[in-house]
Design brief:
410 residues; mainly beta; Leucine-rich repeat, LRR (right-handed beta-alpha superhelix); 6-stranded mixed β-sheet; 2 helices
């Protein structure tokens, strides 16, 4: 047994070492002291050159104010070094506060998209096919952008690359692109159609939606579609597949057997689930998994939600379709609440959450309460009179004593 454990430790150590070496190799590929520029009259491009002199990384574009152009055409090479990477030099893959290619500050959760007046005329971006990497937030704030080509060698499209490019109508996924973030086109409300190169091995298009090559997983719904009929081949709706959707109506077929976290979250007003679906059922405002008794989605047309009596668990990844609830009623059948995010289905301010059971549910989490609130902090909690002491102790045990001031009984 000791020998087996030792071997496992050695394997993990070797893997971590390899990952560290790979990261170091990537970081040392570029000669940060070798900055070269290219000037086409309308734009000035700044780039690092790789240490072997064969590649270039354009990390900044300056717009000449006196010569505004409608097309931003990246050079295919800087000197003799072909362009393989585009994006601000300080951006990190896991960063939330970054910059676009023009140096504009981007902070998506506070609606800073890097927009400035000098970008208003840019309607087209042409990227050379030699580009293999585009960093997060790269083209954020190009609000007038209507056309963009994704380069043939691009393998990954990261999140937030095209924040608020509201005028893009269509995107085409090239042959080698095999990893697309559903947040790549955040705020791109005009997208009506997603096309995919027929030779792409990861994806294809089904009625303009992005699905897996075998058609069984729905990855992304175009934002501008008002009615979405999920194809009958789809067995799984992937996490956040509807995150950009402005659909008013959604139809879910009997084939769907798996719905990912937040998969259906959008502002739709009407959802129809096939009655022949063997896994999911709809009861009032709730879609739930019949086997696990887990709440999957809430449809909130009138801002009041009564969780189905067929549900015993409210997970963190439940989809909110429509507005968050002003009034949320949790039946006695619910015995588990998963944190973070179980309570996102209720408005965080001035909502009323009514528990039907005198016994509080169990909080399922691995996050300490000081790091993430277990409850919507400014909501009123209403519980049966017989369970008042139990709920008071519940709040204390979960280090949420501040909720005591919002506790009412009936």
């Amino acid at each position: 047994m000791k020998k087996i454990l030792l071997n496992v430790v050695l394997v993990i150590a070797m893997a971590c070492g390899a990952a560290a070496l790979n990261h170091t190799a990537q970081a040392s590929e570029w000669d940060k002291g070798n900055v070269q520029t290219a000037d086409d009259g309308s734009f000035v491009f700044k780039a690092y050159i790789s240490k072997d002199g064969t590649k270039s990384w354009i990390y900044n574009v300056k717009v000449r104010r006196e010569k505004y152009a409608s097309t931003l055409r990246f050079p295919s090479a800087i000197g003799n070094a072909k362009v393989t990477r585009i994006g601000h030099k300080e951006n990190k893959e896991d960063g939330d506060i970054c910059h676009n290619i023009f140096g504009g500050f981007v902070e998506w959760y506070h609606d800073f998209d890097g927009y400035e007046a000098s970008l208003v005329n840019i309607k087209e971006v042409v990227i050379p096919d030699s580009v293999e990497s585009i960093t997060k937030y790269c083209f954020a704030g190009l609000r007038s952008l209507t056309t963009v080509n994704l380069p043939k060698k691009l393998k990954k499209l990261d999140s937030m690359v095209f924040i608020n490019s509201r005028s893009i109508k269509e995107i085409t996924v090239p042959k080698k692109l095999k990893d697309i973030s559903v947040r790549a086109f955040d705020g791109c409300k005009g997208i009506e159609n997603i096309k995919v190169n027929k030779k792409n091995k990861a994806y294809k298009s089904a009625d303009g939606m992005l699905v897996s090559k075998n058609g069984r997983t729905l990855y992304l719904v175009p934002a501008a579609r008002k009615t979405v009929n999920i194809p009958g081949t789809v067995k799984k709706i992937a996490e956040s597949a509807f995150c950009q959707s402005q659909a008013k109506k959604i139809y879910i077929p009997k084939s769907v057997a798996d719905i990912g976290d937040n998969a259906l979250s959008c502002k739709a007003e009407y959802v129809e689930l096939s009655r022949e679906n063997p896994v999911f059922a709809m009861d009032g405002e709730c879609i739930y998994n019949k086997n696990s008794k887990t709440l999957t989605a809430v449809v909130n047309a009138d801002k009041n939600i009564a969780v189905s009596n067929n549900v015993n668990t409210i997970p963190g990844g439940v989809s909110v379709i429509g507005e968050c609830a002003k009034y949320l009623e949790i039946p006695a059948s619910v015995t588990k609440l998963e944190t973070p995010y179980w309570h996102k289905i209720a408005k965080s301010i001035d909502a009323v959450i009514k528990f039907r059971s005198a016994k509080p549910p169990v909080i399922i989490t691995d996050i300490p309460s000081w790091e993430y609130a277990y409850f919507p902090m400014d909501s009123q909690v209403v519980v049966p009179k017989a369970g008042e002491e139990a709920y008071k102790n519940w709040f204390k045990e979960t280090e949420s004593e501040e909720m005591l001031k919002n506790l009412k009984t009936y």
